């Protein structure tokens, strides 16, 4: 699946994978202290190799992620990259007469741009209020982005599409937690709905924040002090079983274990969002685009995941049933 915006279409830019800047917010989720200096070569490697779809949000460090990304964007023409950003209801000004404009203006300043390519309502808090707000803001505007919703279930997705259509717009994208260990967006019919209605489905946390990278196990747990450690360290024994299957298939295909969950998400017709904090993460993504998983691989991976019976729904989301 490819995503194109009007500007991207004009220069022939397309993307199968989005690069995530969540960790760039240094908000404690990943337990890292990332800097502009350490991330500059990551951004440069991605852009020079055609990976130009960047996903961020104001809530990722309350503007920190967007500000770092904006530092890098200033050296590139606006039509050379695609920006996916979000309106998080909890961060919006409910007392404002123009909350969407206020949020966008702040994000534009942080990013150093004056338009969005993809704009999301980050979660269903006070839905459908924020669908109405975004729809009203963009109604009749020539520069309306692809409008998406994130962390919404099927009924909420259909409701969002109805509201947008009443304003002469349409729902163009859905972004939910989707991985080998959380396929509720598939089981609930969301993936099929998106496919049948020409809606892009973005899969975030395809690597379960590194738990499916092969880097961590019972002898090498996540470093204490991060949200990842709290969630995944208690179930590392089960994750070892999943990672063993990932390594088995990776060895067969002569790739790294971390590439298989991303290739899986692509095979399932989604656009995976892959967090990148090191140059080798970008190189892994580039190599992943050449991986061809078979139906047999998919069945083996899903059977292994299903037998683990893990519940990795996070505090900000819900099961999509």
TrEMBL record:
Domain NADP-dependent oxidoreductase residue range list: 17-303
Signal peptide span: 1-23
GO cellular component, one term: cytosol
Molecular-function annotations in GO: oxidoreductase activity
Pfam assignment, any one: Aldo_ket_red
Keyword Oxidoreductase: yes
InterPro entries on file: AKR_Detox_Biosynth (IPR050523), NAD(P)_OxRdtase_dom_sf (IPR036812), NADP_OxRdtase_dom (IPR023210)
Keywords: Oxidoreductase, Signal
Identification of the protein by name: Predicted oxidoreductase
Species of provenance: Kandleria vitulina
């Amino acid at each position: 699946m490819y995503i194109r915006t009007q500007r991207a279409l004009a220069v022939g830019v397309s993307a199968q994978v989005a690069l995530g800047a969540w960790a760039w917010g240094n908000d404690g989720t990943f337990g890292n202290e990332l800097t502009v200096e350490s991330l500059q070569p990551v951004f440069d490697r991605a852009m020079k190799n055609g990976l130009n779809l960047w996903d961020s949000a104001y809530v990722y460090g309350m503007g920190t992620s967007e500000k770092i990304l904006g530092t890098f964007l200033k050296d590139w023409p606006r039509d050379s990259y695609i920006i996916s950003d979000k309106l998080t209801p909890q961060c919006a000004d409910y007392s404002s007469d123009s909350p969407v404009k206020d949020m966008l203006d702040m994000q534009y300043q942080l990013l150093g741009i004056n338009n969005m390519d993809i704009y999301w309502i980050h979660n269903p808090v006070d839905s459908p209020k924020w669908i109405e707000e975004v729809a009203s803001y963009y109604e009749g505007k020539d520069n309306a982005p692809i409008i998406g919703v994130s962390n919404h279930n099927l009924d909420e997705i259909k409701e969002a599409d109805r509201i947008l259509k009443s304003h002469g717009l349409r729902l163009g994208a859905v972004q939910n937690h989707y991985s080998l260990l959380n396929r509720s967006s598939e089981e609930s019919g969301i993936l099929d709905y998106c496919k049948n209605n020409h809606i892009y489905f973005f899969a975030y946390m395809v690597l379960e924040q590194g738990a499916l990278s092969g880097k961590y196990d019972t002898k090498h747990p996540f470093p204490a002090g991060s949200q990842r450690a709290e969630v995944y360290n208690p179930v590392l024994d089960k994750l070892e079983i999943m990672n063993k299957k990932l390594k088995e298939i990776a060895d067969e295909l002569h790739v790294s274990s971390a590439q298989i969950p991303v290739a899986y998400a692509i095979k399932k017709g989604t656009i995976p969002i892959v967090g990148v904090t090191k140059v080798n993460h970008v190189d892994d993504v580039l190599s992943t685009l050449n991986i061809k998983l078979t139906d047999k691989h998919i069945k083996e991976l899903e059977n292994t995941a299903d037998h683990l019976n893990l519940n990795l729904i996070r505090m900000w989301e819900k099961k999509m049933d």
